[in-house]
Design goal:
By secondary structure, this protein is mainly alpha-helical. It has helices at about 1-20, 35-80. The protein has one domain (about 1-80). It is about 80% helix and about 0% strand. The longest helix has about 45 residues, at about 35-80.
């Protein structure tokens, strides 16, 4: 449970950093459309999707490292058992 909370927090922070870097303020609002409400919806949906992608990436990365550790332990046991 703690690991999921850490992953979610990291995902939210990374997504917030990405949102801050893409905010139109840094480009003198040159890309703001006529409807500010739709642009806010665009950023909100983009943020939620980014959180999901980061969270899924961290889960896949943890699985990858777990499988690598299992494989190394198995290879180490095979080598230790042979004379």
């Amino acid at each position: 449970m703690t690991q999921r909370a850490i992953d979610l927090t990291l995902s939210m922070v990374a997504s917030a950093a990405g949102l801050a870097l893409s905010w139109p303020f840094w480009r003198d609002f040159a890309y703001w459309p006529a409807s500010h409400e739709m642009w806010k919806v665009y950023f909100a949906v983009g943020y939620l999707l980014a959180v999901y992608v980061f969270y899924a990436f961290l889960g896949a990365l943890r699985t990858l490292f777990a499988h690598d550790a299992i494989e190394k332990a198995r290879v180490g046991d095979d080598k230790a058992g042979t004379p």
